[in-house]
Write a structure and sequence with these properties.
4 copies of one chain form a homotetramer. Helices cover 65% and strands 0% of the residues of chain A. Chain A is globular. Chain A has 139 residues and is mostly helical.
Chain lengths: 139, 139, 139, 139
């Protein structure tokens, strides 16, 4: 993967920023001899913990209040979002997953699971439309 | 922000791939009239649900097994990682958060909370080292 | 439901301890005018946050270390387990759910989904054995 | 602990129903040779996954809709609540934790962290009132 070609085509250039962050995170862990704790199993746990700290920011707010956060609230939310992103990138490094590819593939799968003409305006889970075996609920 | 300048400097070019995905996700939601469900509160819930579906992939595996996933296991893990990334980007769109900036700021904060010389090899939470008021456990 | 018949039959007597705790929790919320925040949606969020604080206790431990917790670790785990139980009981109050009944019904459903002779020693999700539509993985 | 004394005093009788369920759950696991997967670390993961399946029931509902669930929605919610309770009791068995005691102790701690006269009507986290070191947000 082109690490330092910042002027490459869109796809490679887009990968560079993420690759730089992944490299910083690997160094961060190595400097602290923390890699030993970073099994994918443990990283998935840490990621879910941060996702819940993000939920905690909103648990007593109404949906409307969540649209109008005070500066200190938004700042706390940003930190938790960053924490989730950080663990996601650590896990991507460990499992050699290309996040941009994975996301684009998933968006395509979601388009098939939820055809716009069939699901417009409804929050029903896709299993309510037809028989499928996956467990996700995309919206 | 430079939407279509794929040959811009590293920072802007890195932002473009994420911006493209965010735009696809907004269109996906608009086509299905789903934006009404996308309050930040709801998006944080959906994100945490996907983070747990990722945990579910690993819950009965040993740490070693999690390092050696079979192809179908890795495929399921990739899908859940993508789902987490998708909701994180939707939330970033709604709250106008620049994920690359937020992550870089958080890495700096973490370096201060966990100075390498002090924490090397230990998984202790930073609060065990000194008196602080945040609730996160970074590693 | 028999509130104060502590000498009733097993089923009713078993319900009393839980009913007493549920009554304490309602009073706790009323004294603080917090009931306004306790929609089932919000309570589910708070419960999941506590469940993740429980996960956080174990995220960097090996499975073996998790079997041999130091006193202060066990104390922290107990507190988080209590927090999960508390929100579960608040939600049960709000939705008028009888937890003992719900659990016994679910154990029966699980026995059907996972017949002992078919699943012995395997951690495979029930969907790997046959075609079903639920999303849970019981073990 | 008095297993079959269904006519004992309130505290022991209250424990019996929970003890009976815990015994059923142990047998359920033993019949399937699943105990090997039930390290506290793994059980905490499974519990958090079920807590998120509970959140999933509510993620696209408004708070008001969550107060008025349709029968099939309530049925799904009950199942997930039961799943959370089941894993909580498995973990209590493994760690020898008395849930009734743990809950009563935590309610006392919460009363100290959130004195009614100070916090009435406010959803602020206790750390916003004073300097403390715990990470929970009780409400």
């Amino acid at each position: 993967m082109a690490q330092n070609h910042l002027w490459g085509n869109g796809l490679e250039a887009g990968m560079d920023k993420l690759e730089q962050i992944k490299a910083s995170l690997q160094k961060f862990a190595d400097d602290r001899d923390w890699d030993q704790f970073h099994s994918p199993k443990n990283l998935s746990m840490a990621l879910s913990v941060e996702a819940s700290e993000l939920v905690e920011c909103f648990q007593w707010l109404t949906e409307e209040q969540s649209q109008n956060l005070a500066p200190e609230q938004l700042s706390a939310v940003k930190d938790e979002m960053a924490d989730v992103q950080i663990y996601l990138l650590r896990l991507a490094t460990k499992l050699n997953v290309n996040m941009v590819e994975a996301v684009n593939q998933k968006i395509e799968k979601n388009a098939l699971k939820y055809p716009a003409d069939k699901v417009k305006g409804s929050s029903k889970k896709y299993t309510a439309y037809g028989k499928e075996s996956q467990t996700d609920s995309e919206k």
